[in-house]
Amino acid sequence: MTERLLKYLKRAALVAGIALVVLLGARVYDSQRGAPLDLWHTFAPHEMAPEALDHAGWSAYLGAEDKIFGEVRREVTDKLPAEDEVPANRYFAGSPVYPGHFAQDWNRSYELVPEGPPKGAVVLLHGLTDSPYSLRHIGRAYRERGFVVVAPRLPGHGTTPGALAKATWEDWMAATRLAVREAREKAPAPAPLEIVGFSNGGALALKYALDAVEDETLARPSRLVLISPMVGITRFARFAGLAGLPAFFPAFAKAAWLGVVPEFNPFKYNSFPVNGARQSYAVTQVLQGRLAALSQEGRLKALPPILTFQSVVDFTVSTRAIIGSLYNLLPAGGGHELVLFDLNRNAVFGQMLRLTADDALNRLLPPPPRAFAVSVVANASPATTDAVERRVAAGSTQEETRPLGLSFPPGVFSLSHVALPFPLSDSLYGLQPDLAEDFGVNLGALAPRGERGTLIVSLDSLLRMSSNPFFPYMLERVMTQAGEPAP
After folding, report:
1. What is the pLDDT of residue 448?
2. Where are any strands of DSSP class E within 246-372?
3. Which pTM does this prediction carry?
4. Could you say which of 2.30.130.40, 3.40.190.10, 3.40.50.150, 3.40.50.1820 is the CATH number of the domain covering 36-182+198-212+226-291?
5. Which residues of 11-37 are buried (b: 16+ CB within 10 A; e: fewer)?
6. Hey, is 18 helix, strand or coil?
7. In 121-168, which residue ranges form alpha helices assigned H by DSSP?
8. Contact status, residue 383 vs residue 347, Cβ threshold 8 Å
9. Taking Cα atoms as reference points, which of 348, 353, 411, 343 lies closest to residue 377?
10. Domain extents for the chain?
């Protein structure tokens, strides 16, 4: 029996080895197709290490950032070959999307200071491949509310995609701690301290709050606002490290990239390195582990109120994980609420929706009563695109409905992961962009029609909803409770 088992194990190991070789071979073949790597893929500026970040102040971080952007100018922009000096390249100084020509380069860290003494402080944490641009509308609303706003550029972002190929989630956490220290210095306790996190920034905000429960030296936030938070991501990211294995050989350097795409967006990377997926998966695993452990210890009651906004359908993060790995663990009485943006269930789309998407909301939520409040932004009826809020308070089974005075725009069947923090008027991503600001391109307003293979980017990325028709509602919800004491 033992000999037979040994033969079986050897056979299984041989089959697994052959399968791995075949998969790696396929990965090498796939990675070598398409455009070659450019300067912005191969160059990474020198970021501060986590140990240095933990001992640095805000001014030191801004000084280091100046040097980083100087490196990018010298090593990428000033060395571009002639074929890369095109209008659609954000690294070409003559391009209309070159960030250095704008009144403010939103790739950089910034602070917004209110008139008079601050009533509180808020830290804004952007998402993966993103930049501080993504939360600027929310930051302005906080400043008008009397808050000082601290928006760090997380290491590996805002410069070159090659920098994201080197960054780690520990770098991002160290930058988060630095930003919180700056915020607390500008608005000392007992003034409110809030953290707003978008996507990967939502994971960092939540991880910081969990760390503050266990570490008394960390300033505790008074509230978390999470927008499409990366509590869990797709299973593919678990194996992203394997996809990058061939890149250990210089001839197969492109295998370190899941996507090599022209960089025409001034404030977000289009190309995506394997390391980005690997680091995002790592932070979600650490996050879920700490949530589960502190839940078993009964310590999640020390978390501040959490207000989360999430699209029911999300191709980037797992809505199910937000509910199962976070909200279902939160104890009652914490003032927590989950706001879900449903699909547009107007009859015009009814027959075109996938069955899994059409039934997503019913499959995601546990039945009431729940320990947390739930609000769903949805059609008032299938006959109209007008939206209502359907809210069930924590511990209740009764649903309350209120009209929002907002509606799904024509042709929009759902929100997306990237849409939530941007109003329809956003100059870059808005469906109805405000032309008072010019960032060289209006990505959200494009409605391309033509033959495939003509554009430099896939139609799928251009057709993804990139702004939020319900942004006024979301901002109202955030600002109504900003600075309120915890329940």
Report:
1. 62
2. 257-259, 272-273, 306-311, 337-341
3. 0.89
4. 3.40.50.1820
5. eeeeeeeeeeeeebeebbeebeeeeee
6. helix
7. 136-144, 161-164
8. yes
9. 343
10. 1-31, 36-182+198-212+226-291
Q: What is the pLDDT of residues 22-73, one digit of tens each?
A: 444 443 444 445 568 999 999 999 999 999 999 999 999 999 999 999 999 9
Q: What residues contact 474, with CB distance under 8 A and at least 6 apart?
A: 309, 339, 420, 468
Phi-psi map region of 158: left, alpha, beta (phi>0 left; psi -120 to 50 alpha)? left
Let me know: does 68 contact 116? Beta carbons within 8 Å.
no
Confidence band, pLDDT 50/70/90 cuts, at residue 363: confident
| Neighbour-count burial for 63-82, b at 16+ CB within 10 Å, e otherwise | ebbeebbebbeebbbeebee
Could you tell me how far CA 282 lies from the centroid of its own chain? Answer: 15
Largest Cα separation within the chain, whole Å, is 81
For residue 44, give the nearest of 238, 262, 256, 259 by alpha carbon: 256
Q: In this structure, are residues 355 and 365 in contact, taking their beta carbons and an 8 Å threshold?
A: no
CA–CA gap between residue 10 and residue 5 (Å, rounded):
9
In the predicted model, what is the mean pLDDT of the chain?
Answer: 88
